[in-house]
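Human:
I keep going back and forth on a fold encoding question. Comparing notes only helps if you start from a blank page. Show me how you would write down a chain together with its backbone fold. Write it directly below this note and I will take it from there.

Assistant:
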Amino acid sequence: MDCEGILRRYFDGAQFAMVLTHGRAVASFAVAIAERLGLPDDETCFIEQAALLHDIGICEVRATEIGLFGEHPYIMHGVIGRRILETEGLPRHALVCERHIGVGVTVDDILSQELPLPLRDMTPQHISEKVICFADLFYSKKPGRLEERKSMDKVRKGLSRFGHAKLQIFEKWGECFLGGAEW
């Protein structure tokens, strides 16, 4: 599959470079986790592709600090990405887009935070979705930091503002995916 070609249909210039560099960093870490877990080659291949495409929905959001000037709030990039990849004929990849935000977005999150999202569970359900979601937490889209992997403590600090339950999910994934050791 030509993931770069798909991204080029939605991005150009600096935005393309950002989404591709970020996607490659996430994909590299996610593939390393998949290999560590001994996932089958076809699943590892899917993880690499989906990680490269997971942020395609940012093409329609507004985040001026990272050079995005779309019309939708950033929180919507997952559902936008799902729509885009479903249109591209990639329904499984599309679900990764929708389910990769933080450690997942629940209906309760949407209601309690009054998020502009459809009322449905958007938490990762399958190991591949969880691996990509986890790997994504370690990489920023901030200029100059695209390939810089955050420490576990820095990720914990960022997630802490969303509550203890989100931290518990992250800790469980860390134990499972990294064996308790930081890479």
Q: What stands out?
A: The chain has one domain: 3-150. Residues 3-150 form one domain.
